[in-house]
Amino acid sequence: MTLLGWIGILVVILTVVALAKRWETRLVLFTSGAVLCCLSMEPLTTLNAFAKSMTNSGLITAICTSMGFASVLTYTKCDQHLVALLSKPIRGLGIFLIPVCTAVTIMVNVVIPSASGVAAAVGSTLIPVMLRAGISPAGAAASVMMGTIGGVLSPGSAHNPYVAKMANMDVMDFIALHFPYSMIMFAIAVVGILIVAMLFRDKGASENTGVIDESKRVQLVENPNFIYAFIPVFPVLILFLGNTIIPSIKMGVAQAMLVGTILCLLVTRTNPQEFSKQFFSGMGKGYGEILGIIIAAGVFAAGLTATGLVQSFVDLLKESNDIARWGGSFGPWCLGVITGSGDASTFAFNEAVTPHAQHFGMEVPNLGALAFLAGVLGRTASPISGAMVVVSGIAMVNPLEVSKRTFVPSLIALIALALTIV
């Protein structure tokens, strides 16, 4: 390897350290990419990569409309109606509250893709229920945290349209491709969190063992409205039916989110002017926070390519399918655990390596899906991820205690995916 390549590796290590220290993700990725491009004597590559990622139309429409829809759900409290409706029937299940709460969180996360948002909404309701049932605070928080992997099946998740566009696939076709593997991951998560709870003896604590931080709770509605609760599900239902049994209503993610937004306005009858402000504010937030990471990851990947590191890595992966399998799984997973973000590592990997999948005997959508799911599992096991901080704050427990319980199911699910998905 050349001197430039070794310098590139040093920059990558420093990038990981900066992300682990919780420095601003977009700044870190952009700066690292710019430094690598300049060291490679290709400074304009930074600007070209930035401009190219800014105008990715397929991603902009899907991600921004999904975030706009999520914003109006929060504004109208339809998301809270959904959580309250799902949480009512599960009280009094004893130790089985833990896997059931994980399953409920997974279902909510499918229709509301934000991990931190779901952790706050679901955790506010289900963690007190589990504490009153005698489940330890760490076990209750881990149950909800483990369920934040459900967003992998959401059309509103940024990674689904990202990999789908890379593979020249429809978003729903890509979700259908990794659906069976995602279900394997869900099954391992639900069963695994129950077994871990038994090993840690999380059931048997007194009712007053756990104390809730009321300042971090989301006050949910006491009497959920079924129609309000149905609105978050509506766009997902349209996309599913349109791609399966009713092809006449088949539409894109952006169109489905707009239909859901209009239905939300008609049903909730909120102030149209304020409603509109919330929707477009959510769209702007989607571009700034999610597409911003994609843009910065594109610059970082351009820097890695300019130094020759990507080509060196691809040449290594060509030697063995197994190297690619474990590199595409443990790489994003480890970075997710270390940095607390499944986004930065996954976007960077999929931008730099996944397009070359066929060179080492793999398919682009399969490798992209593996990296995506691995990054989510890594984030779920990380004690410093945003969602982990939220659930730990609600239960008033050390995040490391929660991470101990999600780590093993996450690792087992990762190995299962690596063995089956490619």
Topology:
Elements: H1 3-20, H2 25-39, H3 43-54, H4 57-76, H5 78-87, H6 97-111, H7 115-132, H8 137-146, H9 159-166, H10 171-199, H11 226-230, H12 234-242, H13 253-268, H14 272-307, H15 309-318, H16 321-339, H17 342-352, H18 364-381, H19 386-395, H20 399-420
Helix pairs in contact: 1-2, 2-3, 2-14, 3-14, 4-13, 4-14, 5-7, 6-7, 6-8, 6-10, 7-8, 7-19, 8-10, 8-19, 8-20, 9-10, 9-18, 10-18, 10-20, 12-13, 14-17, 16-17, 16-18, 16-20, 17-18, 18-20
Compact description:
It contains 20 helices and no strands.
Overall description:
- The protein is mainly α.
- The protein has one domain (3-420).
- Helix content is 74%, strand content 0%.
- The protein contains 20 helices and no strands.
- It has helices at 3-20, 25-39, 43-54, 57-76, 78-87, 97-111, 115-132, 137-146, 159-166, 171-199, 226-230, 234-242, 253-268, 272-307, 309-318, 321-339, 342-352, 364-381, 386-395, 399-420.
> Helical stretch count?
20
Largest sheet data? none
Quaternary organisation of the protein chains:
single chain
Cα-based radius of gyration, to the nearest Å: 21 Å
Number of domains: 1
SSE arrangement, N to C: HHHHHHHHHHHHHHHHHHHH
Distance between the termini: 29 Å
Coarse morphology: globular
Total beta strand runs: 0
Q: Determine the mean pLDDT.
A: 88
Approximate helicity band: over 70%
Structural class comes to mainly alpha
- Low-pLDDT parts are none
Strand content: under 5%
Which tags fit this structure?
422 residues; mainly alpha; 0% strand
